[in-house]
Design brief:
The protein has about 140 residues and is mainly α. About 50% of the residues lie in helices and about 10% in strands.
Length: about 140
């Protein structure tokens, strides 16, 4: 966890050290910015990514998105974890867009990791067994 620098030990004005101290203070737990996998983003963006990824990691998430009861359950859980109504609405809009990219009848779907598509049936059983033999 980053601490806010002590002004009495601050680096010289304009130095890299001064910039670094200010940046570390920005990324503290009390700040609005954070880093995830070395990507600077707002804490709101981080909450949105986590909620979206958690839903996309569920089996058959595209079908479940169509159920008002399930969506309400997910929204309650997200609100309990600190997401705002606006963030929750954004995630559902984003997921509706991702669901629209899915080709009906295709086993490939957008996975929990952004920009990664997954499928459990693109490789036939014989090839799967052959690969397991070499693992």
């Amino acid at each position: 966890m980053s601490e806010t620098p002590d002004p009495s030990t601050s680096a010289p004005a304009g130095s890299f050290e001064e910039f670094s101290q200010k940046f570390q203070a920005m990324c503290s737990d009390r700040a609005m910015y954070t880093t995830t996998n070395n990507i600077l983003c707002t804490k709101s963006e981080q909450r949105i990514r986590f909620m979206s990824g958690a839903i996309r990691s569920k089996d058959d998430w595209i079908t479940k998105m169509g159920s008002p009861d399930i969506r309400a359950h997910w929204a309650r859980e997200a609100k309990e974890q600190g997401l705002t109504e606006c963030e929750i609405d954004y995630v559902f809009d984003e997921l509706n867009h991702y669901a629209a990219l899915h080709v009906a009848g295709s086993s490939a779907k957008l996975g929990a990791v952004e920009n990664v598509w997954v499928s459990d049936s693109l490789v036939d059983d014989d090839t799967t067994q052959e690969l397991k033999r070499y693992a």
